[in-house]
Amino acid sequence: MRKLDYAGAIREATTQEMERDSRVFVYGIGVPTWSSIFGTTKGIPEKFGKERCFDTPISEDAMTGFGLGAAIRGLRPIHVHIRVDFMILATNQLINMVSNYTYSTGGKLKVPLVVRAVIGRGWGQGAQHSKALFSNFTHIPGLKVIAPTTPSDMKGMMIAAIRDDNPVICFEHRWLYWAEEDVPEEPYEIPLGVGRILRPGKDVTVVGLSWMNVEARLAADILAKRGVSVEIVDPRTLAPLDENLIVESVKRTGRCIIADCDWVDSGFSAELSARINEKCFGKLKAPVKRIGFAQTPAPTVRELENEFYPNAKTIVHAVEDMLGLEAANLDGEDFFSHERRFRGPF
Amino acid sequence: MKDEAIYRRLFRTALLIRLVEERIIELYPSDKIQSPVHLSIGQEAVAVGVCDGLKPDDLVFATYRSHGFYIAKGGSLDAMFAELYGRKGGVSGGKAGSMHLAAPEVGLMGSSAVVASTIPHAVGAALSFKRRGLSQIAVAVFGDGATEEGVYHESLNFAALMKVPVLFLCEDNGLAVHSHRPVRQSYRLAEHAASFGIASRRLEEGWDMLAIRQATLEAAAKVRAGEPFVLEIVTSRYKEHVGVGEDFHFNYRTSDGVDAWKRRDPLIVDQKLVATLRPDIEREIEAAVAFAEASPAPGRDELLADVI
Lengths: 346, 308
Ligand SMILES: Cc1ncc(C[n+]2csc(CCOP(=O)(O)OP(=O)(O)O)c2C)c(N)n1
Ligand SMILES: [Mg+2]
Prior knowledge:
The complex is a heterodimer. Chain A is built from 14 helices and 14 strands. Chain A is of the alpha/beta class. In chain A, the strands form 3 sheets. Chain A has a 7-stranded mixed sheet, sandwiched between helices. In chain A, strands 9-11-10-13-14 form a 5-stranded mixed sheet, with helices on both faces. In chain A, strands 1-8 form a two-stranded antiparallel ribbon. In chain A, strand 6 (144-146), helix 9 and strand 7 form a beta-alpha-beta unit. Chain A starts with a strand and ends in a 23-residue tail after the last helix. In chain A, 54% of the residues are buried. By secondary structure, chain B is an alpha/beta fold. Chain B has one domain: Thiamin diphosphate (ThDP)-binding fold, Pyr/PP domains (Rossmann fold, 3-Layer(aba) Sandwich). Chain B contains 13 helices and 8 strands. Chain B has helices spanning 2-27, 44-53, 67-72, 77-85, 119-131, 150-162, 181-184, 189-194, 209-224, 256-262, 266-269, 271-294, 300-304, and strands at residues 59-63, 108-112, 138-143, 166-172, 175-176, 179-180, 199-203, 229-234. Chain B has a 6-stranded parallel sheet, sandwiched between helices. A two-stranded antiparallel sheet of chain B has the order 5-6. In chain B, helix 1 (2-27) packs across helix 2 (44-53), helix 1 (2-27) packs across helix 12 (271-294) and helix 2 (44-53) packs across helix 9 (209-224). Magnesium ion binds at residues 143-145, 173, 175-176 of chain B.
């Protein structure tokens, strides 16, 4: 096997599906231009031409409705938004139309539409380029919602999403684009709705969402040095949720921390917490704890960004708190810094 | 002679904007400005000509590319650099950065990085002027790409129905990030506006500050009388969409268009006047940078302040 990064996994999944199925096409603002959505659509316009990979006017709402129309008449569109913050201009179509089309037609019409949305921190992106908004979409019946963390998960889940006859929203954290691992070259599917234990452990379960799984791994390495064994569960698909996997893990460890890269209030972490409380009540040794953004709009300045975004340190301290351990001195630890790869401007 | 004095005033502000942005280019590699910057170099004449044609209490609603409008409206330079640095002394205490500059104290009511999203705000503010019997006007500033959003069309329609004093100002640099206008648009702004009964004007000479000022004076007079107006000004973005570099090596455009524009750009052509004004402007900029450097970083208390 060869190494592939997360952006490459998306590119490869898209390319392979476009080769296999002439109904598949990919479009969105900037999709065929040189910057190619963090490289995820690079080479696709050259290979498949303008009919199957095209730019659009800055008209997210109409372009989503257009995707629905194409999807119910035999095509399989992939619509890309370079920020989830811009996808919200399309929420009428997504929430009033796409999500309930199959239901409203008594199952006669399916909407095989994939909508990709980039999330995550850059620097100084401020309040309009930094959201995640998972729960805005998991709240809605009729939408599948995925947020793969690893490149191999991404490739298999993207292929599954494209082949799925239902609308799928895919959240992609921009820092994950650089992540590399062995990814099989041939096309394969990872079924949607199946979670994954990223790391087995026995003292505490950390349910990580998207990027927070990377932070959770770092935190788990640090805690392992002190004899604390962390189990990391990546739901991968947020809707439909692999509830059983999470519940079984929490029953084993008796403790759960949910690490989200989104706001906590009414966020996806609230849904997870509710389900865990319902299903694990007698087994919990401590109340479920949630980690996420500060409940403020994202500030622009670095000092406040650092307060706003959770990271591995936040997870380490939450675990210590839950286990009644002294807070460790983390000065010598090597934390992830996006600036090793990112120096602006966007 | 009077024109000469006006020209000099406009020129000075345009040069100030350019030198401020050139200073930002110098500073950027130091990572002191950790925020995306969308430079208006090449487009300064629009902000300067328009704002000079407005009255001081007329309001502007702008975009992420608004260093020019901030300065042309008279925003504090100290507070601007401190904002870019993310310091407490920033115009929004470091919470806004370059993309969300706002200085309501001088009539810049806000700027948004979600394309087209401030256009209807100008219509609402204009309605308020009308209701309260004021003679102010509101200006919606947006790029050519922003007219592709439904909200542009909806805003024009409502402004026409309500007959509110709003000026729709389109900065047409022909680009939306790396996409050229013909790929994105099948309409012409003037004809589109006319279908709402809204008068418009397209000015090709977007380097000509006096012409822009004159066009604004004429448009603003109509707007003040209660007729919305669309003013489209052709302009040229010299730098990359976001960031401080050039972008010709990305091969999505050649430098020909920009080179042709530069041959008419007064800030390049009129080097004599540049030389006369430059030292004083540079002192002003250095003082603002020093202010930003000395301004403290905000702390955790500020994170939670002003949410509601
Ligand atoms: C609603 C929305 N969609 C997409 C984007 C991404 N985007 C940022 S700037 C831009 C181009 C806008 O072009 P234009 O309005 O002509 O302004 P210019 O940058 O040329 O000044 C795009 C598509 C965005 N910020 N907001
Ligand atoms: Mg433009």
